[in-house]
Specification:
The complex is a heterotrimer, with one copy of chain A and two copies of chain B. By secondary structure, chain A is mainly alpha-helical. Chain A has helices spanning 14-20, 25-35, 45-58, 64-85, 98-123, 153-171, 182-190, 214-232, and strands at 144-149, 200-201, 236-240, 247-251. A three-stranded antiparallel β-sheet of chain A has the order 2-4-3, covered by helices on one side. In chain B, helix 1 packs across helix 3. The chains are: A mainly alpha, B alpha+beta. Chains in contact: A-B, A-C, B-C. Chains A and B meet through strand 1 and helix 6 of A and helix 1, strand 2, strand 3, helix 5 and helix 10 of B.
């Protein structure tokens, strides 16, 4: 292009404003096409290209960031014009013919024109807030909460299990555990201390009224522990002749 | 606006679109001197009487409002998921297994008094209902579960509730080891269960 | 709800109370199975025809709005709709008639890049929204119009777009390769869109 399109034109240059009125190069083309006053489908692309190029070159100064699209279109139209005027070169693959390019431009112009008409039709419709008005005082109905409980059958059955367990645990008294304590053993053995001169089997010193089971086992253990206590205190002596053999005891300083 | 009919339509539209009640003076200003606003309002109010929307006086002006008698139909229910307390779940289970059952019996089985809201919650959930009275002193209410209870828990009928044996087999009656004794009081106390 | 009269009153109240269109399905849900909602709506719409307030189908639902012919009498109190730029109106039309459409396609049809704020304005107005992505290189967003767009522009549904049938017959609702693949460098970036 020429110096006329200097990029440093003042922001509010009148010629810039000339382009500001258009929504892009197709819109400008459409505006020019309307000046031909013929059906868009029948418009002469050649004449339109001339109009466009004349319009663009008529602009003395142009801000480049606005004009770039317009200049690309101008270049393309100049190319199209040359293609339309000259006979088509031998067909090259993928290269549309001049007529196809012109038809495509027709299509684009018609499409944009249709959308512009549609936009105008939308704006001419019955617009809410301009032509009709909605209810000014919408009412809100406070929602009523309907509780929905989430509970699975498993939860329910587990709960019954808990209840059932608790119910039966009440009649299920845990019996006071009976056993023969170390104190019991000490008290019992104390009556014999000093009166056992000969080695005697520990089992002979167990309380007489022994029941079976836990009580007996605890009596054996506690009596044995009691003998250890008494031996430590130096009041009796203990002796075992072999592993797992009988435990023998006698008073301290006994005859043996 | 020419005729009375148009005036009526304008008042109707103005009141409909207004964000708050509109005073008669404002309507008069909008319609011009020719309009008999009080008469028009009376006509409009009469027209809307008995409809779903009424024209009513409120706050010194006129306003459209939905008919008060429709309030229950207009309110929208909103599902709110709630949890049930352990007490409520256990109570429901006891009712399910022992129905018909009185409140006192529920308390005896659970070993604890029923809290105030427990039965109410279950009633509200639609899972239990009172059904008749026990012919015993004080004639206490009998409680039973509802068809809704069966539906919620996917049961065809009450016989589909697992029995005690099945609960035990599923480990729901298990009780942990307790004391070191030679004889297990569990077996001694509940011989019938085995 | 007992009779048909009550149903009619409830629909009237529900629609009157709402500022936005209510879908028929919502009304059916509110009224229960017994109600013939389409018939009730037709009856109500006929009843309000010619009054100051009309019942109209908008944006896929039904809504009461003031009669269009009363606009001059009502407008003075209302701020006139904020003016839309030509770019915004055209962009809105392109989206409405060609949806779902990508930004690149909008630009190809209009032959110019979208200004920064244009889509934002339409989005802010609640008239367009992105809906999914195109399965093509760069996976660009698809843009569509909203029910609110229909309501605002007085349309029952998209079939009521002005002249849509004629445009379709003329082949102007298809974005052909001729639009997308000519010289325009922007369109060159999305060759696979069609």
């Amino acid at each position: 292009m020429t110096d006329d399109f200097a990029a440093d034109a003042p922001r509010d240059a009148p010629l810039v404003l000339e382009l500001d009125g258009y929504e892009g190069p197709i819109d400008l083309l459409l505006a020019l096409a309307r000046e031909q006053k013929v059906d868009l489908g029948k418009i002469s692309i050649l004449a339109l290209a001339d109009q466009y190029l004349a319009f663009i070159s008529g602009l003395h100064r142009l801000r480049l960031e606005i004009a770039a699209d317009y200049l690309v279109m101008a270049a393309w139209l100049a190319y199209l014009k040359s293609r339309l005027l000259l006979p088509d070169p031998p067909a090259v693959d993928d290269e549309p013919s001049a007529e196809e390019l012109a038809a495509a431009l027709h299509q684009r112009l018609q499409l944009l024109a249709a959308m512009q008409r549609a936009g105008a039709a939308l704006m001419a419709g019955t617009l809410l807030g301009r032509d009709v008005f909605p209810r000014g005082q919408p009412e809100e109905f406070a929602p009523v909460d309907r509780p929905v409980y989430e509970l699975s059958l498993f939860d329910l059955l587990s709960a019954y299990g808990t209840t059932h367990r608790r119910q039966h645990a009440q009649v299920l008294t845990i019996m006071a555990t009976e056993f023969y304590s170390l104190d019991d053993g000490l008290r019992h053995l104390a009556q014999y201390v000093g009166h056992v001169p000969e080695w005697s089997d520990l089992m002979g010193f167990l309380p007489a009224e022994l029941r079976d089971g836990v009580f007996r086992r605890s009596a054996v253990a506690s009596t044995f522990a009691a003998t250890l206590e008494l031996a430590r205190a130096g009041r009796i002596e203990l002796r075992q002749e072999r592993p797992f053999g009988p435990l023998l005891l006698r008073s301290a300083g006994g005859a043996g | 606006m020419s005729g009375r009919g148009d005036d009526l339509r304008v008042i109707e539209a103005l009141l409909f679109a207004a964000a708050e009640p509109v005073a008669e003076e404002v309507l008069s200003l909008r319609l011009g001197d020719g309009a008999d606003v009080p008469a028009l309002l009376a006509e409009l109010a009469a027209f809307y009487e008995g409809r779903g929307v009424n024209l009513v006086r409120r706050g010194g002006g006129w306003v459209f409002a939905t008919a008060p008698d429709l309030a229950p139909a207009l309110r929208q229910e909103r599902a709110v998921v709630r949890g049930l307390s352990r007490a409520a779940v256990e109570t429901l289970a006891v009712i399910a297994y022992h129905q018909p059952i009185t409140r006192a019996e529920i308390e005896a089985i659970r070993g604890v008094a029923l809290g105030r809201g427990t039965l109410d919650r279950l009633l509200e959930a639609g899972w239990v209902r009172p059904k008749g009275r026990r012919e015993s002193p004080g004639r206490p209410l009998n409680w039973v579960t509802t068809p809704n209870f069966l539906t919620h828990f996917g049961l065809g009928d009450l016989r589909e509730l697992p029995g005690v044996d099945e609960l035990r087999a599923a480990g729901l009656l298990e009780i942990g080891p307790t004391v070191l004794t030679d004889h297990d009081p569990r077996t001694a106390e509940t011989p019938a269960d085995e």
